[in-house]
Amino acid sequence: MTLIVAALVLPSLFWDKGAETANLLDRARISHIDTPASIADSWKRVAGITVDVVDLKQLIHLTTPSVRFDPQEASATRAAWVNSNGWRFLRDPDARFYYEAPGASAPLAAAEAFTYGVWAVIHTNEAGLQPLGGMLAFLKQLDSEYLPALANIGFIDDGSPQSGEFMNLLVRRNLLFKIVKQPDPKLDLTVALGSPDYPRFEAGNPSLLAEKVRSHLTDEKRLLRIYGSEEVIGRLFGDGNHARLYLINYESARASIEGIRVRVLGDYSKQQITGYELPDARLLDVSTGAGATEFTIPELRTFAVITLSQRK
Amino acid sequence: MPGHYPGKAVRVHSDRAINVSSNRVDASCMKAMLSAGMRQLTGASDDRDAWRQFISPDDTVGIKVNCSGAPEINSNPELVASIIENLLSLGLPPERLYIYDRFAYQMRIVNFETHVPKGVKIAAAESSRGSIAGYDPFTYVEVNFFGEEDTRSNLIRLVSEKFTKIINVPTMKEHRAAGVTGCLKNIAYGDFSNVARSHKREQSNTYSFIGTLASVEPLRSRTVLNVMDGLRSIWHGGPFLQDPRFLFYPKEIVVGTDPVALDHLLIDMIEAKRRQEGAPSIFDRSSAHLKFVHERDPNFNSFIREPGHVQYASELGLGIYDKSQIHEKAIEL
Questions:
Q1: Which of A106, A113, A132 is nearest to A25 (CA)?
Q2: CA-nearest residue of chain A to B143?
Q3: Do A258 and B127 count as a contact with CB atoms less than 8 A apart?
Q4: Is the four-CA dihedral A115, A116, A121, A126 of positive or negative sign?
Q5: How do the pLDDT tens digits run along chain B, 333 residues long?
Q6: Residues B64, B190: contact at Cβ < 8 Å?
Q7: Cβ pairs bridging A and B (under 8 Å)
Q8: Residue A49, min C-alpha distance to chain B (Å)
Q9: Which of B17, B23, B60, B44 is nearest to B224 (CA)?
Q10: Cα of A181 vs its chain's centroid, Å
C-alpha cells in the first residue's frame, strides 16, 4: 500500500475574549485561535497568533467528553456513563464541530477530535488553557503517516436518533465499525437497526443491542479489547503491516488510570507507546502469538498512542 | 488443596480468646489455640515439627488474610503474628514472609505492621482500587457473566511469581452472595481481580466461580494450610457488618488443609446461628426473601445466596464435602 503523508487535523481553541488576554495564550503555548467575527480584527494585530473567524451557529455542538458516575443507578459492576462523541464524528465526518470544554475536559476534547480526524474548535476557560495547549503540542508532534481506520463491523446508518445511540454504544464498547450503505462481504458483520437481528423495538435498550453485536461478532474476532477499564475508548488504524492505536481516557479529568491491558488482533513484533504527560511511558508484559498482540499500559493520563509494526 | 489432611478439621475454642466487652484479642491465648490446633492436625508433639510438615526454610510464604470487613471483622493480627512466629522458628527470614490481600486501603485499617517483626512484608495487589499492576496478566480465568466488557479475573502476581507456599487465614462469616465466606472464597475472590462482576441484581455466579478460581494453578497447589479465624463472626449482611446486632463471637479457630471440609463446618455454624436468630436458611432461594437493599432485616437479602459453592468445589477435587467423611476434632482451652 502507498503511504501518504497527510497534514494532521488538529483541533483549535475557540476564544471569545479580547486581545488583552494574549499573555494567557502565550503562556499556554497556543498560537492559533478561532474567534467570533466581532473580535477577530483586534486579535489579528497580536504578534505570534494566527486567527480564523468562526460562526458558532454553523457548527454542530457536542457533548463535553467526560465520565458521569451515578452510584444510585450503577449496577454492581460500578460501570460509569461515558460521554463520548465518536459516533457523531463517524456519522458526519466532514462536519464542523464545537466543544464547550472547561478545565480538564479541554485536552480530552482535543484528543477526541484528533482521534477521529475531524475539524473542531474547543471553547474553554482560563483553567483549561494550559492543559489544552499541552495537548495540542503533544498532538502536533505525533507521527503524521496516514493509516486507514480499521473496522470489521459495517453499520447501516438510517440517520435516526436510535441508530445514533446504537452507534454510541458500539463506540463505547470498542466494537470497531464503519458506516456502510450495504453489507460488505469483506467485513465480519453488518449491523442495521430494523433488521431481524436488531429489531427496532429493541432500540430502547441500546446496551442490549451492542451486546448482541459483540455476541454475533465474538470476542475472538474483536479488533480491540481493553481490560481493566470501561472508561477508555480506542480507535485503531492500520495498513496490514503497521497499526496505530489511539486510546482516550474519558476519566482523565478525575484521575489517571493505573493500568489497562490491551489486546489488538494481529501479531505485531514491535510495539511502542507515546503517552501524553508520560514521556517515559513504556509497555509491559507484552505478548504476541495466537493471532493477537497484548500489552499492559501501566498508566494512562488523557491520551496515548501505541504504534505497532512488523506484523507477522 | 485439599493437601495433606483431606477431610480433617480441628476446631479450637477458648472463652478467653477475645474479651467481648473490650473487643480485645488475647494474644497468648491465640498462640496456645494455634499450637493446639496444629499439633492435633499433624499429630506432632512439637510446634516446629507441626509447621515443618508444610513449610521449609527455603520457602517464600504468603499469608492470605481477609480485611474486607475491617475494622469490625477481619483476620486478627494476633493470629497472623502467631503464625509468623512459628514460621520464623523454622528459620525463615522475615523478608520472605508476606501478609497480603487485594486492597491496600482495607489492609491499612487492620494495621498488621504493629503486630509483626520488622522485615515482614505487607502487600496489597491494588494500591488504589482498580489498579492492575499487582496482577499477573498471563494467569486468568476468562468468563462473561452479564455482558461485562472486562471478562478476565487475573491472579495476584505475588502468588504466581513469588510465593512458594500460601497459608490461608480467612474469617468465618455469612456472605450475602456466596452464602458464607471462609477458606474457599478467601483464596478465590481474594486472589483474583475483577470478581465483583459475578454478582448483579439478585443473581450471583459464586456457585461455580469460587471453585473454579481456587482450582487455578499455582494457587491451588501452593495453598498448603488453612487457619480460619472465627473469634468474631457475622450471621447476616456479610461481608461487611451492616448492623451491630449481626456480630457474634464464636471464639474459635479452625485448622486444616481441606478448604471444603472447613467451609462445610462454617456453613453449619452460620446455619445454626441463623436458626437461633429466627432468620431464613442461607440455602433459601425464595423470592419472598429477596430485596435489593442494605441488609438490615435478617429476613431479606439482596442476592440468592450460593452456599452450594462449597459442594461444587468438592466436585472439582478441592476437598471433602460429605459430612460422614469429615473428621472433626474439637479442642477446648
A1: A132
A2: A219
A3: yes
A4: negative
A5: 999 999 999 999 999 999 999 999 999 999 999 999 999 999 999 999 999 999 999 999 999 999 999 999 999 999 999 999 999 999 999 999 999 999 999 999 999 999 999 999 999 999 988 889 999 999 999 999 999 999 999 999 999 999 999 999 999 999 999 999 999 999 999 999 999 999 988 999 999 999 999 999 999 999 999 999 999 999 999 999 999 999 999 999 999 999 999 999 999 999 999 999 999 999 999 999 998 877 889 999 999 999 999 999 999 999 999 999 999 999 999
A6: yes
A7: 58
A8: 42
A9: B60
A10: 23
DSSP string, B128-189: STT--TTEEEEEEEE--SSS-S--EEEEEHHHHHT-SEEEEE-B-EEETTTEEESHHHHHHT
- CATH 2.60.40.1180 fits domain A224-311: yes
Binary contact (B149, A230; C-beta < 8 A): yes
pTM of this prediction?
0.92
- With CB atoms and an 8 Å threshold, state whether B132 touches A259: yes
Say if strands B233-234 and A268-275 run parallel, antiparallel, or are unpaired: unpaired
Starting at the earlier edge strand, list the strands of the sheet with A284-289: A224-227, A260-265, A292-297, A284-289
Element (H, E) at B121: strand B121-126
Pairing of strands A119-123, A96-100: parallel
| DSSP, res A257 | B
Question: A229 CB near a chain B CB, below 8 Å?
Answer: yes
Q: How far is A211 from chain B (nearest CA, A)?
A: 6
Q: Which residues of chain A are within 8 Å of residue B130 when distances are taken between CB atoms? A: 228-229, 257-258
Residue type, A297: I
> Is the CB of residue A202 less than 8 Å from the CB of residue A232?
no
Distance from the Cα of B285 to chain A's closest Cα (Å) equals: 20
Q: Nearest Cβ partner of A285 from B137, B199, B201?
A: B137
- Residue spans of the domains in chain A: they are 12-140, 153-221, 224-311
B chain contacts of residue A261, beta-carbon cutoff 8 Å: 132, 137, 152
Q: ipTM of this predicted complex?
A: 0.90
Q: Which residues of A touch B131 (CB under 8 A)?
A: 258-259
Q: Is the pLDDT of residue A5 over 70?
A: no
Q: How far apart are CA B77 and CA A232, in angstroms?
A: 39
Which among B127, B146, B149 has CB closest to A173? B149
**Cβ separation of A77 and B197 shorter than 8 Å?**
yes
Chain B: give the shortest CA distance to residue A281, in Å: 14
Residues in chain B with CB shorter than 8 Å from the CB of A296 are: 132-133, 137
